[in-house]
Amino acid sequence: MLLFGLPGGVEWVVILFAILLLFGGRKIPELMRGLGKGIREFNAAKATIKEELEAGIDEQKTLEQPKK
After folding, report:
1. What is the count of structural domains for the chain?
2. Is the pTM of this model over 0.85?
3. H helical segments located in the chain
4. Nearest 5°: phi and psi at 8?
5. pLDDT digits (tens, 9 = 90+) for 14-68
């Protein structure tokens, strides 16, 4: 099923060269900054959802406990 493998050393060089040609040397730091910001926002949203799910599970457990 796997027709193509992961890029090797030469392929990475070609990919990086193509990115440099497309965006230019001045745009790459701006592009990386935007990518980093996107990753931070994704991780923050992931943490928020995890906290909400854990709080909901804890709340459900307290509701299911038998009353004495």
Report:
1. 1
2. no
3. 9-64
4. -95, -165
5. 988 888 888 887 888 888 899 999 999 999 999 999 999 999 999 888 888 776 5
